[in-house]
Amino acid sequence: MTDLLQGLGYATVTAGSVEEALAVLATSRFDFSLVTMELAGTDGTDLLRRLKLQGGDPGPIIMLFDPSNAKRIGEAAALGADDFLQKPFKADDLENVIKGVRAGPRRVWGPTPPDDVAARLEQETGLWRSPKMQELRRVIEQAAQVHVTVLIRGETGTGKDVVARAVHYRSSRQHRPFVKVNCAAVPHELLESELFGHERGAFTGAHQLKIGKFESANRGTIFLDEIGDLHPGLQAKLLHVLQDGEFSRV
Known about the structure:
The protein is an alpha/beta fold. The chain has 2 domains: 2-102, Response regulator (Rossmann fold, 3-Layer(aba) Sandwich); 116-244, Rossmann fold. Helices cover 42% and strands 11% of the residues. It has helices spanning 2-7, 18-25, 44-54, 73-79, 91-102, 116-125, 131-144, 160-169, 188-196, 213-216, 232-244; strands spanning 33-36, 38-39, 42-43, 61-65, 83-86, 178-182, 221-225. The strands form 3 sheets. It has a 3-stranded parallel β-sheet with strand order 1-4-5, with helices on both faces. A two-stranded antiparallel ribbon has the order 2-3. Helix 6 crosses helix 8 (160-169) and helix 7 (131-144) crosses helix 8 (160-169). The longest helix is centred in the middle third of the chain and has 14 residues, at 131-144. The two termini are 30 Å apart.
């Protein structure tokens, strides 16, 4: 692996255990990190859990896994892994995944800081003074206390996103992911893979396993914006997910 990365032009630092990795991450900043799911005496998800407690700056994390560990991918995604690469893989596959994660936002690891988003939402909803808005606040509080699917209706610009986030940050899921999907912005032919993910080799061009938005939002909240623009065929599949709470990758 070291030779492969150096061949792609990257300088490398290696660690043989979770403890070694945490010691390095405590003092160094990295552009990205490759973590194998199989570690001596434990697995890669343990490193993610420890990172959430200790903190560090590993950059985007790419989990390397054998097919036998594919069932652990959802757990690793919920803990903060940015992407996944199934072994064995080619240099081009690795380089494409690295480029993809480095183009995305950089995650902050460590104990959860005071939540600026939640604070801003509290400040904004605190300005709702009219009887109608006070009633909306009560509905948000009720929805946040139970695990149900919530339908938010309203014209463009009326604040559906604010309501969705307010429900999330008032619920027991507030420290879990909040994943927003603009259904109108993703091409129809790509939306199923975007929502549910796909297995390696599922279709032409599917060179690696892809984690979908539902799996990324595991135990958190997924906000499907502009859901009325979904293709009817995909609406039927989405209904199955909402009713049964289960889905399969493409």
